[in-house]
Amino acid sequence: MVFHSEYEDVSAVEEPIHDAVLGRAAARGDTPALIDGVDGMTVTYAQLDTFHRRIAAALADLGVRKGDVLALHSPNTVAYPAAFFAATRAGASVTTVHPLATPEEFAKQLRDCAAAWIITVSPLLETARTAAELAGGVKEIFVCDQASGHRSLLDMLGSTAPEPQVDIDPVEDVAALPYSSGTTGVPKGVMLTHRSIATNLSQLAPCMPMGPGDRILAVLPFFHIYGLTALMNAPLRQGATVVVLPRFDLDTFLGAIEKHRITGLYVAPPIVLALAKHPAVDGYDLSSLKYIISAAAPLDAELAAACSRRLGLPPVGQAYGMTELSPGTHVVPLDAENPPPGSVGKLIGGTEMRIISLDDPHKDVGVGERGEIVIRGPQVMKGYLGRPEATAAMIDADGWLHTGDVGYADEGGWLYVVDRVKELIKYKGFQVAPAELEALLLTHPGIADAAVIGVYDTDNNERPHAYVVRQPTAEDLTEGEVMEYVAARVAPYKKIRRVVFIDGVPRAASGKILRRELRERA
């Protein structure tokens, strides 16, 4: 059966993302759009409108053209939205880069999407330079702040070049190009069009309303599609104020809630855990909070309830989606009364869902039965960049995107996600592709074979565990040596957290790793 949303259908928003989000920015004048949660620097809506247009003019004057890819490599700052929307207004697609990516990881992404430009910040400049050298093809590296030998976005604010008038096709042109592993494999560029992102914002708005007077704390990274949508695009589109933090530090986070009178939090489960259990929470006034939404990874129902009780808030809601879905498909509406514990929400407007049998992909299962969640709607990605086969494996001929998640829907239409078909590991909300770590492990001269799976710890975080077969000549290879080898070559969130040495990796006749056997062993 096909599940339909109880919300009204949403018309496709066919306008460039910078207009969809900032179309009313100038009219909002001196209303604070962005506040640095550490030093208090404020950017008003009128300033954000002017700033992104001036930077767009400077970028176009320097040669940025429609069809170019610009890599945005930065932690959360008040400059991030101006950089993002300036690039799209100049006609570029923005590929967002994890600020903790190694030069090699960054270079791989640059090569894959043929990025010609980079915007970074001075503390990350050395990584960006090395990545550009490794990748080749990068014309120039800009900085948001100041760095000798590099043009700054601050200087671009004084540009007298004409504002670019780019003919953008919202249906076909790619606005954002985040990287995702999908259901398996190595990270791939997800082509999200101006229309798919803008329409998803319109779909989500009735369930998560916000506006002038609301203050949203942006601690999850903007480079991640969840942060880009829930913490940057959605609040700026609706006139709320975004208080920006560059990273998560519990005391800084709690202090920002207290000082800036934050009204809404969009977080991941580890932050819910801290709010529910950490003693530091009692030292801060969090009374301004009206609601908390958690997404990016499964949230335990008891943990959610404990957080709500401690803070005296309505039940912590959940949302569901994935990068390939721009990203949202389900959310627990903010006005829901007594939503069922553990549910990730209801279908947003204009979205369809089926739950298909795990044994027969041509058969749908009924209400209350578990199966793979498949989604169809205007927020579905255009496809994976340069990977038509991977796209076809993800999106079938009828337009249904196969999420790789296992779940069921109850009679009220509430969705519950219970497991994954896919191999992807979610470590604190970040994607870790087993295949990528396995390929790296096999470059170690002492490793003959390897497999990686995710194993949940007592805090319900999924951690990458490696099962390693030693070479006959490396019988003294230790767990610590393997972990150090990987840690030196990947971003911190991808590190192997445990190594188990085995005699052989279980495989099917096709050669596919039988991860289920390893999970049972774990």
Low-confidence stretches: none
Task: Decide which structural class fits the backbone.
Answer: alpha/beta
Kindly report how far apart the N and C termini lie.
Answer: 36 Å
Number of helices: 15
Give the overall average pLDDT: 94
Radius of gyration over all CA atoms, rounded: 23 Å
Name of the level-1 CATH class of the domain at 17-29 and 45-167 = Alpha Beta
Write structural notes for this entry.
The chain has about 525 residues and is of the alpha/beta class. Among the domains are: about 140 residues, Rossmann fold, CATH 3.40.50.980; about 100 residues, GMP Synthetase, Chain A, domain 3, CATH 3.30.300.30. About 30% of the residues lie in helices and about 25% in strands. It contains 15 helices and 27 strands. It has a 9-stranded mixed sheet with strand order 3-2-12-11-13-14-15-16-17, sandwiched between helices. Strand 4, helix 3 and strand 5 form a beta-alpha-beta unit. Helix 10 crosses helix 11. The longest helix has 17 residues.
Characteristic terms for this protein:
single chain, 522 residues, alpha/beta, GMP Synthetase, Chain A, domain 3, nine-stranded mixed sheet, five-stranded antiparallel sheet, 15 helices
Condensed summary:
The protein is α/β, with parallel strands linked by helices. The chain has 15 helices and 27 strands. Strands 3-2-12-11-13-14-15-16-17 form a nine-stranded mixed sheet, with helices on both faces. The protein has a five-stranded antiparallel sheet with strand order 1-18-19-21-22, with no helix packed on it. A four-stranded parallel sheet has the order 5-4-6-7, sandwiched between helices.
